[in-house]
Design brief:
Subcellular location: Membrane
Shape: globular
Strand content: under 5%
Number of helices: 10
Keywords: Membrane, Transmembrane, Transmembrane helix
Organism: Octopus sinensis
Largest sheet: none
Membrane topology: Multi-pass membrane protein
Distance between the termini: 107 Å
Protein name: Aquaporin-11
């Protein structure tokens, strides 16, 4: 029997618990990334000037989100779409509670601007910060791969070429990426059920489900920064096509999602029946009764003749 020469050989041996080992390796990757970035996030909230904190929070949140997404592909390869959706939803839950108001992507900041949470100048500053996060993400991922937690990390280190994930026409890719962001933006603001906990839980999985549905067409990144880190400059897509599909489409899709939600809210508000009050209609305590507007019936008057 061959004796492993190091702990890495033992850890990566496929004959030892072949089903559970990759999952444990993925968990170690996730835990390592989260612990490091949570520590940095806490230091940022303590030592960074107040005016700079939200900018750096978006910067670190974007790095964390994209670094974790690199591992999602490996998890999906081993355990399928269901495990990927569940893990992505769980990570979204952690992000919501750990990073709170930080935006992990450019569309998230566009949504803040559309909801008048941040100004346009603040939006531009945050977007430029997330663009500058692209080389930082590549560096962080490369450093983690050097730990050789999984055999796939070693393979990625030796890879020198890459191919585009855009397997449809540019126009169709634009519609897929933009439409998915529009749908997710609309659903994130809408109320799916009357129960708050169920509503929040369902919204955690809308993004991962759309990724599964569109991953074979465009890669369904739904995050311009992540798409640029992984596939910018790869064979099969020119730079302007990449910007059009993975940057412009999500931004416009987010704006469209907000517009659809606002339009839907206005329609609901306009269809609400107004309640009129009369001073002559009171109960025993002197409180007014509600009187709903009379509806006019065909061929008959609703008022009583005196």
């Amino acid at each position: 029997m061959e004796v492993p020469s190091s702990w890495i050989d033992t850890w990566n041996n496929p004959r030892i618990f072949p089903f559970i080992i990759p999952f444990l390796q993925c968990l170690i990757y996730y835990a390592l990334v989260l612990l490091v970035h949570v520590g940095i996030f806490k230091l940022n909230s303590i030592f960074t000037p107040i005016w700079l904190r939200p900018i750096l929070s978006d910067f670190f949140c974007t790095i964390t989100s994209c670094t974790i997404s690199f591992q999602h592909g490996i998890l999906r390869f081993y355990y399928g779409n269901t495990t990927y959706v569940l893990m992505s939803g769980f990570m979204a839950f952690l992000f919501r509670n750990i990073f709170k108001d930080s935006a992990p992507s450019v569309p998230a900041n566009v949504l803040k601007y559309m909801k008048e949470v941040i100004s346009f100048s603040d939006l531009l500053l945050r977007v430029f910060t997330q663009i500058f996060a692209i080389p930082a993400i590549a560096l962080v991922v490369h450093m983690i791969w050097l730990l050789e937690i999984m055999p796939e990390h070693t393979q990625q280190l030796s890879q020198r070429t890459c191919a585009s994930d855009l397997n449809v026409a540019v126009a169709m890719g634009f519609l897929i990426e933009g439409g998915s962001i529009a749908l997710e933006t609309w659903l994130s603001q809408s109320r799916i059920t009357i129960y708050d906990s169920v509503d929040s839980c369902l919204k955690l999985f809308t993004g991962p489900i759309m990724v599964v549905l569109g991953i074979h067409h465009t890669g369904m990144y739904m995050n311009p920064t992540l798409a640029s880190v992984m596939k910018f400059g790869c064979k099969g897509t020119t730079p302007w096509q990449h910007v059009l599909v993975y940057w412009l489409a999500p931004i416009l899709g987010c704006i469209l999602g907000v517009k659809i939600f606002n339009y839907h809210q206005k329609r609901l508000a306009s269809s609400t029946v107004d309640v009129s009050w009369t001073d002559s209609m009171r109960n025993e305590n002197g409180d007014k009764f509600k009187r709903f507007p009379r509806r006019k019936l065909k061929g008959r008057s609703t008022t009583r003749k005196r």
